[in-house]
């Protein structure tokens, strides 16, 4: 990348979907591929930031970054708590499960246990629980009322910036290499970005981050 505008900054990025165990072989998961989070980590690193990537997926080229692999929302919370100490920004691109089984079975659940009731409890909200003096960026993946829902999350989670993403729009679905997002800022500004590669979306976000941090 042409710029080195994030040199000296430490940026924590989360990527991927969490997996919440049902038993030793099964989990509740979601469709997040981790591509957006990995693109953010790559962009930040290329622009000179010291990157800590907390991820449920392996990143193809993570040289020069600190990668912390996690599986569950609880593990992600603990990893983020540690990683944000002294950090300048936290970007929560991960799709954190909202529910997890109340208990995970110790052994593989047998077929003859059907019909099987799974009791689910809420997971901790990482953005709400992790406090500190750093720029906070969240994502809002929505299937309806994109801007309204994203605005609520911007305020509710005390964010500086939320990246609103209609996951039903063409080219914006899970696993795609492109994304179409709207950036919503704390001060009420909004910017609609066209459909573009996830790496280009990441560079846009880094442009704003660099401005906020410098
Ligand atoms: O409330 P919702 O899950 O839609 O909010 C999305 C944003 O909040 C994302 O940035 C996501 O990473 C973050 N999040 C979180 N902890 C959760 C759920 C979501 O930090 N338990």
TrEMBL record:
Molecular function via GO: FMN binding; metal ion binding; phosphopantothenate--cysteine ligase activity; phosphopantothenoylcysteine decarboxylase activity
Keyword terms: Decarboxylase, Flavoprotein, FMN, Ligase, Lyase, Magnesium, Metal-binding, Multifunctional enzyme
The protein's annotated pathway: Cofactor biosynthesis; coenzyme A biosynthesis; CoA from (R)-pantothenate: step 3/5; Cofactor biosynthesis; coenzyme A biosynthesis; CoA from (R)-pantothenate: step 2/5
Residues annotated to bind CTP: 98, 108, 124-127, 139, 153, 157
Record-annotated DNA/pantothenate metabolism flavoprotein C-terminal domain positions: 6-211
EC number: 4.1.1.36, 6.3.2.5
Cofactor remark: Binds 1 FMN per subunit.
Residue segments, region Phosphopantothenate--cysteine ligase: 11-214
Cofactor(s) it depends on: FMN; Mg(2+)
GO terms classed as biological process: coenzyme A biosynthetic process; pantothenate catabolic process
Function: Catalyzes two sequential steps in the biosynthesis of coenzyme A. In the first step cysteine is conjugated to 4'-phosphopantothenate to form 4-phosphopantothenoylcysteine. In the second step the latter compound is decarboxylated to form 4'-phosphopantotheine. Catalyzes two steps in the biosynthesis of coenzyme A. In the first step cysteine is conjugated to 4'-phosphopantothenate to form 4-phosphopantothenoylcysteine, in the latter compound is decarboxylated to form 4'-phosphopantotheine.
Family: In the N-terminal section; belongs to the HFCD (homo-oligomeric flavin containing Cys decarboxylase) superfamily.
Listed name of the protein: Coenzyme A biosynthesis bifunctional protein CoaBC
Stretch of the intact protein here: 180 to 393 of 393
């Amino acid at each position: 990348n042409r710029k080195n505008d994030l040199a000296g900054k430490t940026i924590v990025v989360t990527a991927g979907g969490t997996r919440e165990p049902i038993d030793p072989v099964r989990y509740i998961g979601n469709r997040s591929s981790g591509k957006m989070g990995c693109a953010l980590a790559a962009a930040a690193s290329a622009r000179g930031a010291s990157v800590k990537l907390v991820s449920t997926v392996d990143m193809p080229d993570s040289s020069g970054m600190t990668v912390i692999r996690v599986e569950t929302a609880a593990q992600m919370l603990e990893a983020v708590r540690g990683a944000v100490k002294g950090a300048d920004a936290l970007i929560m691109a991960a799709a954190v499960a909202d529910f997890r089984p109340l208990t995970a079975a110790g052994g593989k659940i047998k077929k003859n246990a059907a019909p099987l009731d799974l009791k689910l409890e809420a997971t901790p909200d990482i953005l709400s629980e992790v406090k500190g003096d750093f720029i906070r960026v969240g994502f809002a993946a929505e299937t309806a009322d994109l801007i309204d829902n994203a605005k609520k999350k911007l305020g509710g989670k005390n964010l500086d910036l939320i990246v609103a993403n209609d996951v039903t729009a063409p080219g914006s679905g899970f696993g795609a290499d492109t994304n179409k997002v709207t950036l919503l800022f704390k001060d009420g500004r909004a910017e609609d970005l066209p459909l573009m590669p996830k790496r280009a979306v990441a560079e846009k976000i880094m442009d704003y981050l660099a401005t906020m941090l410098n």
